[in-house]
Amino acid sequence: MNRRIATTLAIVAAAGAITVAVGCGSSSSADVPTAAEMKGTWTFSARGFEAGRPASHTGTITVNTVDGPGFGGYEVWKSATGESGRLPINGVIAPNGDVLITDTYAEITGTVSGGTFSGQYAETGADGSALNVTGTKN
Question: What is the pLDDT of residue 9?
Fold first, then answer.
């Protein structure tokens, strides 16, 4: 019987530790950004690999439309090799605060805190890319 009580206490303690570790009940909704907070122009830089070679890009993302958790706008980018472009973007903010932005070719996932974006850009295909992205709201 003592073994059963000890096992039960160990399971309850482990469940409590897991709950604290994953943050259940420990974050406030005030910490979760809203789509309205995304509205405006963000300056970003990205660095990683594209088509098997080191790559870096700079640019802006302008969010001009917001509806509920979603937002839309466009991105303007320039690579270190001089390539540039403008693409429409769509985005959403999940209830936990995670941000997902898509363009014609790829997606950016990340988080926003205090006017700073931090995330990753992923593109598949022949010139697939994996880049770390940081941005600040202007």
Answer: 37
Q: Is the pLDDT of residue 1 over 50?
A: no
pLDDT at 30: 60
Rounded distance between C-alpha atoms, residue 99 and residue 108, angstroms:
8
Q: How far is 21 from 23, CA to CA, in rounded Å?
A: 5
Provide the whole-model pTM: 0.75
Give backbone dihedrals phi and psi of 4, rounded to 5 degrees, phi first: -65, -40
Q: How far apart are CA 44 and CA 76, in angstroms?
A: 10
133 within 8 A of 67, measured Cβ to Cβ: no
Tens digit of each residue's pLDDT (9 = 90 or more) over 17-27: 333 334 444 44
Nearest to 75 by CA among 88, 90, 93: 88
User: Quick one: tokens of 105?
Assistant: 């070719």
